[in-house]
Design goal:
A hairpin with a 5-residue loop joins strand 3 and strand 4. Helix content is 33%, strand content 30%. It is rod-shaped. The chain is an alpha/beta fold. A four-stranded mixed β-sheet has the order 2-1-4-3.
């Protein structure tokens, strides 16, 4: 008997060849035709005669569905698809800016410029304003500065999370506007 062993370069949980735990299997051959319900040994014999492998594609079905195919090629294709999907995946980075209720105009303009640069490059910006000590009694000043900041960037940014006070920090999240 030809006992074919495939050694993939990383560990996976695919049920193939001798790893299949089921006694009876619904077998599909390499051309896509159903061979019917066979015992595991018969299915493996058919696969080995064709110099191919037996892969369980639907282990939860009763009986489990297995397909005769070249496992090495199948595994390579799966890795290629996963790598391609990962490459196309875009992660959105969130940059943070911290304002103060007693910020100077030049500092304010610098923060606005930096936020615009980040938003234009496709990043989200989280703006925090921390109230310390007696500043907690002057939250309306902080709200004014936050609204002024939002007015400055409203042409390029959409407000994803409205300004809200959580503890002693007021925060908002801005995202780039959809084109």
């Amino acid at each position: 008997m030809n006992n074919r062993k495939v050694a993939p370069n990383n560990v996976n949980d695919d049920l193939f060849n001798e790893k299949i735990p089921f006694r009876e299997l619904l077998v599909i051959d390499s051309d896509g035709k159903q061979l019917g319900v066979l015992s595991k040994r018969e299915a493996l014999d058919i696969a080995y005669r064709q110099n191919l492998d037996l892969l369980c594609v639907a282990p939860k079905a009763r009986p489990a569905v297995c397909k005769i195919l070249d496992y090495g090629r199948y595994h390579f294709e799966q890795q290629k698809k996963a790598k391609e999907a990962k490459r196309k995946q875009h992660t959105v980075e969130i940059k943070a800016l911290r304002l103060s209720p007693i910020i100077d105009t030049h500092d304010f303009e610098t923060k606005v410029r930096q936020a615009k640069k980040w938003i234009e490059s496709g990043m989200k910006v989280k703006i925090d304003m921390r109230f310390r000590g007696r500043m907690m009694t002057r939250q309306e000043v902080g709200k004014q500065i936050m609204n002024q900041f939002l007015d400055e960037v409203k042409d390029i940014a959409a407000i994803e999370k409205r300004p809200s006070l959580e503890g002693n920090t007021m925060s908002t999240v801005l995202a780039p506007k959809k084109k």
